[in-house]
Amino acid sequence: MNRVRVLLGQRARRDGAQVALWAGGAGLLAFAAYAGVDGTYGSEGDRTSLLAAALANPVILLFRGLPSGTAPGAFIVFLIFPWLALLAAFMSTFLAVRHTRGDEEAGRAELVAATPAGRTLPIVTTVVHGILANALLAALIAGALIAVGLDASGAALAGVAAGAVGVVFLGVGLLAAPLVRSSRAANSASVWTVLVTFVLAGTGNALGTPSDDLTRMESSWVTWLSPFGWGENTRAFDADQWGPVYLCLFVGLALAAIAVALASVRDLGSSFLGERRGRAEGSALLSHPVGLVWRLTRGALLGWAIGGFLVGVLSTSLASIVAEVGATNPAVEDVLRQIAGQGSIAQGTVTTFFTMIGVFAACVAVQTVCRARQEEAHGTAEPLLSAPVHRVRWLAGYLAVALLGITAVIGAGVLGAAAGIAGGDGDASLMRTVVITGVGQVAAASVFLVVTALLFVVAPRLTIPAGWTLVLVAMVLGLFGPLFQFPEWLVHVSPIAVTPLVDGEDVDLRGLWWLLVATAAGATASLALMRRRELAPAG
Questions:
Q1: Alpha-carbon distance 180 to 187, whole Å?
Q2: 69 Ramachandran zone, left/alpha/beta (phi>0; psi -120 to 50)
Q3: Of these four, 13, 201, 418, 491, which has the most CB atoms within 10 Å of its CB?
Q4: Residue pLDDT, tens place only, 142-171
């Protein structure tokens, strides 16, 4: 027991700030959701109208939860539960990989395994640590909902359901770590599992059966293939079903038990899935730092670009649908007006979806710079920089590829928007809004790129946690700020929320020039400071 306590203390010291950010962010999102719903959908008629629109056009359910009635609590869960569970899922997978495969790569696991703790006790401790982190997240969500006056039993179920989904993905991360060779591969496998199951739950809801009054939806069987679907089917503040919570906990602990069993038969540093053999000779592209960075990051960039394309398709194919909803629901129209200024509701819909694509592009930027930090921490950057490659040139390679990735994601979104118009006989005039909004999101994502690069130069150990925290905060402010009636100045803290707008026939540049100045200044400063920066090992 003393050994577990010591290992838990070590994990708490390393993860305290990150867990607080993830769990605290979930609690704040739940608290803000009530204020937003109360101010924007205060009447039952507004909530009924929006639910009817969602059930009549099921594709909207891809990004929302499971409709379970018009009560304020149930309506809040419908709007934000998938996102609360998504925060729990990402927190859990990153935590699991960091303390398993990540510790192996850093050499910590071998040192701990040489003590009486052995090889399996650290993984057991990680399971306990992950469960406690999700319990904290669940408690903060429940506490936020109770604090605004909602029913305690429904609030507790909503919080516990989100935490239980996190426990499932804790098991996913623990299982991915021994299967693949590196922490990067384990994180990639875990993240793609999260994203695929997130979409799977939304698809299952869209294929479900609506009630006669269009306020509830019975999930299809597809939803039950996803942990997000299990959490949504608890129906907090409505039926209050605890069965799916037990299912989440059972599956999560079963996956964790398998991971513990695998640890007892696996050599440290090895993996059950072998790596693909490389070619005998490298391509000429690898003779240049930019080519090497491209080789290391191209798979991730392709994945984000595919996501951008799909969201782009939705942006224009749903524009007419949302315009019809806004015409009958003043609350929806008001939210879209806040996003799109004086433009049409269809333009507001495009702007909203391209704000999401901007988040994807920001993720590409942060992920690429974080890859530089991982190369440095793992010791693979040192032999490269010992060759005739200046460290400024090395960092510039990551910035160049990240900018290429940003452009590729936004460009894929623009192509997707064009495909949505062509495939659905949509309004071709929306392409002007698509292009202008897309260009603005390139500028916004570039700000995340240079800020993360500055972090990498001046505070390298904060690169990964702080970089992803910036994206999370920007996403909440940019995507949920207008919906939750945040003050305008607070929403505009997010770069993705101050990009140019198309107001009818006019274009409001808003904060474009500030974004461009910040990008130029950040890029210049990061490259200049990199000249004198020493390599920083893992910490």
A1: 10
A2: left
A3: 201
A4: 999 999 888 999 999 999 999 999 999 999
